[in-house]
Amino acid sequence: MDNERYQYLMKLGFVIVPGGEVRLGTDKPLPCRLEGFRRNETPVRRRTICSFWMARCCVTNAEFEQFQPRYQRPLTSPRDRQPVTDVTYLEALRYAKWLTRQHGVTFTLPIETQWTCAAAETATEFPWGDAPDASLARSRGPGVTGPVDVDDPAYPANWLGLRHITGNVQQMTLETHYIPGSGGAETDGMYCIVRGGDWRHCAYSVGIPRRGIFDVGARGPTVGFRLAVNITDELNA
After folding, report:
1. For 158-177, how does the pLDDT look when each residue is reduced to its tens digit (9 = 90+)?
2. pTM of this prediction?
3. Per-residue model confidence as pLDDT tens digits over 12-45
4. Residues 83-140 pLDDT 10s
5. In terms of Cα–Cα distance, which of 81, 80, 74, 86 is closest to 57?
C-alpha cells in the first residue's frame, strides 16, 4: 500500500491490525439449556491471517444517513454519534459498497478471524483477562436506555485504539450460514455471525469467543457494524 493511501485510511479513522496466529473458540463455552453448552463456541482452533485495517469505531447514525437519507433512527439510538442499528446485513454490505465508490478503497465487513484478532492482544476469554467483570462491561445497567456514543471517552479504547470492539452493540461479521430446516422446510433461514456487544446482554457477552447469529433480513436495536479493509485487496487495486 502506498503512503498516500495509508495516510488516507488513517484520516478516515482506520487502524492497522497486525496479522499472525489467532485463537478461535474456547474450552469454556457458556452453559445452554438446549445444548448443555454453546457448541458453536467450540472447539479451540487456530488460524493465521494477514494484517488488515479495522475502523476505530462502529458506523454512526450520521454516517449511515449520508448513504440512506431516509433511514429512521430507533428511539434507543437517536443521536448522531450513536452506532447505527436497525439495519439489515445486506444494508450494511450496500453501505460498504457505497463507501468504496466514494473513496476508492475496498471496504467490507470483517470476517470472524479479523474481529477476534482485533479484539484483544492475547488469547484470553475477555479483553482484560479470563474472568467476567461487569464493571468493565459498562454499556448496560440502571439508567442506560440505549447504546453509548461510539467515541464516548468514558469507555477506554483497546490495545489498538479501537472503541467498543467488544462492548456497546453487537457487530456483524461477513460470515453467513444456513440453519437446517425444521418441520419439513429446506432451511430455517440465512444468518450472519455477530460478535461482542453487551447492551441488553449479560456481562459474559463481551467475551472474545462469544458468538451470536442474526437473520440477514432482520433489524435489531442491539446490532450494528464496523468496517474493515483488506491490505491484500488494496495492494492489488
Report:
1. 889 999 998 899 999 999 88
2. 0.91
3. 999 999 988 998 888 887 777 666 667 788 888 9
4. 999 999 999 999 999 999 999 899 999 999 999 999 987 778 888 888 877 777 666 6
5. 81
Q: Give bridge partners of residue 195 from the DSSP assignment.
A: 171
Q: Distance between CA atoms of 169 and 146, rounded to whole angstroms?
A: 9
> Where does residue 94 rank: exposed (0-12), middle (13-18), buried (19+ CB within 10 A)?
middle
Q: What angle do CA 191, 192, 198 make, to 5 degrees?
A: 115
148: cell is 453509548
Residue 237 confidence (pLDDT) above 70? no
Q: Tell me the backbone φ, ψ of residue 51, rounded to 5 degrees.
A: -65, 155
> Which three-class secondary structure state does DSSP give residue 197?
coil
CATH architecture of 58-227: Alpha-Beta Complex (3.90)
- Beta-carbon neighbour count of residue 15 at 10 Å? 15
Residue with the three cell numbers 439495519: 87
The answer to whether 50 touches 16, Cβ cutoff 8 Å, is no
Amino acid present at 83: P
62 phi, psi to nearest 5 deg: -60, -40
Q: How far is Cα 198 from Cα 228, in angstroms, rounded to an integer?
A: 21
163/55 Cα distance (integer angstroms): 9
- Contact criterion met (CB below 8 Å) for 59 and 81: no
Instruction: Please report which helix (H) or strand (E) contains residue 118, including its range.
Output: helix 112-119
Task: Report the alpha-carbon distance of residue 102 to residue 136 in Å, rounded.
Answer: 37
